Amino acid sequence: MGLISEDIAQLKSRNASVEMDKAWEISKTRRIFIALITYIVAAYYMRTLGVADYYLHALVPTGGYALSTLTLPMLKRWWIKKNP
Prior knowledge:
mainly alpha
């Protein structure tokens, strides 16, 4: 019986890890962090290129990322309905 208990404990541990990974993937913290990094990198790149108002233009890729994170869950639900 000890082996079965160990297997169950390993499965529970793995499931907890998978649940945390899922939670991280859809967390607002992750989305905000990626948007912030995207903005910083885009602004720096545009600044080095000499783009006027680079701090405003860097909002374009950041906004694109933010919009994609908002629409992808809806697209996923639609796709799941259409592909059971």
